[in-house]
Structures are given as structure tokens and as C-alpha cells.
Amino acid sequence: MQPKKQHVLLLIWLFLCSSTAVDLELVAGVTIILSSNIFFYFRELPTPFRLNSPGLQTDLDNKMFGQHIASSIIFKAVNGFMSNTNSNKPLVLSLHGWTGTGKNVMSRLIAESIYTNGMKSRFVHLFTATLHFPHRHMIDTYKSQLQQWVRGNVTNCELSMFIFDEMDKMHPGLIDSIKPYLDYHDNLDGVSYGKSIFIFLSNAGGDIITNTALEFRKAGKYREEITLKDLEETLSLSVFNNQNGGFFHTGLIDKNLVDFFVPFLPLEYEHVVQCAMAEMRARNLEPNHDVANMVARDMVYSPKPEKLFSSTGCKTVQHKLNFYR
């Protein structure tokens, strides 16, 4: 059922139920039409600026491993944005790092802290570059479609979330089609984008992040000493100049519309163990350190000769755990 039709039917139903001269057959008819949709509607009614801040913090503490920079930035950025009732610009986050370091998990945690149905919410929209925008010769069509999709969904709900995965595989120039929506405007053609959230996920910049982590390790420093300042500028320049990525010479970076470039550090052996333990808890299994260590030892580590970082992060932990249980 379309949101606008559902909304009209809901209003009719509420009016009839509150009327002193109730036509019971009419009420019953409208109720049947709404059926299960009415309860879904109440659950998913847009409720701007309702963030489960304690829940987000707990999830970051218990489900994000080895990502002190990303966890701190995300919590402060999302919390600050959701508490600002006068925002005239959407929150724009760009998450970078090797595969399996937690970028998709972080997006899910943000969605779950805001929307009742998390990633399944009708207000959360996920785009994957190789799936939704596969053909370079159709880029003009994709630009038009993307503008319509974003504008239409924000019109329906100001507090919409858009997640763009595989930005390193997106055709250059495509993402600039939504640049006006990410800029500072009270409204644009009658639509306000200042309460929406845009999240970009990319493997681009992973090598820079890994090299920085390796340099700190060689200097005898803890990875927790790495700060955003150590990475953000080189990270943004790297993706801006990457000719094969979706951020190549994009106006989003040139006009400083990306609020935070969030680095995800490569995961070490201990973090893979933590991932395995968390997966066991998620399955309601008794956490077993021996099993977690077997899973961690089964990973491939790089670079040579140090072999410090899991090449796939925690991405294959779920399936490897099936083998050892």
C-alpha cells in the first residue's frame, strides 16, 4: 500500500472510531483494508530526531572491534546531528577501509539506533554501485533516476537514510547528480534535506590507512594513538584523485560537503577473536576462546613479512565458525 493512501485511510479510520454516529460496517471495512498495514504504519511513522543514543553507544562498544576512531566519530556526529532541530544540511559520512573492517556493520548500527525496523525500514535506502549502476553508457539515465529516488523519498520522509556501497566502483561523475541535495539549503524546490543522512562506503583509501597503522606499530606506538588528524586529509585527497572511483574530482569533496571521512583501521588477530566471540553470543552459543582462536588462526594476514592485519577483516568469521562448531 502506498504511504499517502495508507495515511488517508488511517485518518478516515481514526475519524470513524471517534465519531458519535459510527457506521460499524464502514469502520470494519476500512479496518480490513488497512489490516496488518496499520500496525506497520504506526511502527514506521517518521519520528524525526528520535535517536536511541545509549543503544548506539552500547552497540559500538560491543559490536565494533579495533575501531576507536570510527566509533568515536560516528557517535558524536550522529548524536550531534540528531539533536540539532535547525539543520539546513544533511549529515554526510564517508566510511573507508579494507573489506571486513566494519563499514557495513556501522551503517546497520546507525540505522538500528534511529529506525524501528533498522535496515529493513522503508526509510533506509541502500544502493550498491555494481548492482544499481552497472553500465557506464547509462550514466545519464542513472543520474536522473538517482535524483528522482532521493527527492521522492525525502519528500515522503525528511528523516531518510541513503547508503551508497562500493563507492570505489561507482562511475565517476554519477554521485555529483545529488550534490545540490547535500549542500546548505533551507529547502530546494520545496523539499528540505537537512534532516536526512547520507553514508558512503568505500574500500578506497584502505592502503593509506593500513600504512599509517603499520608506521605507528613500527614506531612502537599503540594503534589507539592514531587520530583522525593522522588520516583525514590524506584520505580525502586520495579518493578525490582516484580516477577509477566514484569520488574522482567530485564536487562533494571540492565543496567540503562530506562532513567526516571516517577511517576504519585494519583488524589484527585479537580483533578477529573478538568478532568470533561476538558471533557466538549472537547465535546464543556459549562463547569459546579455543574456537575463536582457531577461527582467527585460519585467517590470512598481511602485509609480508609482518602479517599483522587480517586480509578480510572479520568478513568470513561467520562461515568459518560453522566449520569449527
From TrEMBL:
Pfam families: TOR1A_C, Torsin. One of its GO terms (biological process) is protein localization to nucleus. InterPro entries: ClpA/B (IPR001270), P-loop_NTPase (IPR027417), TOR1A_C (IPR049337), Torsin (IPR010448), Torsin_1/2 (IPR017378). GO terms for cellular component: endoplasmic reticulum lumen; nuclear envelope. Residues 267-324 form the Torsin-1A C-terminal domain. Keywords: ATP-binding, Endoplasmic reticulum, Glycoprotein, Nucleotide-binding, Signal. Residues 1-21 form the signal peptide. The keyword Transmembrane helix does not apply. It comes from the Eukaryota. GO terms for molecular function: ATP binding; ATP hydrolysis activity; kinesin binding. ATP binds at G97, W98, T99, G100, T101, G102, K103, N104. The keyword Heme does not apply. It is found in: Endoplasmic reticulum lumen. Belongs to the ClpA/ClpB family. Torsin subfamily. This is Torsin. It comes from Poecilia latipinna. The lineage of its organism: Eukaryota, Metazoa, Chordata, Craniata, Vertebrata.
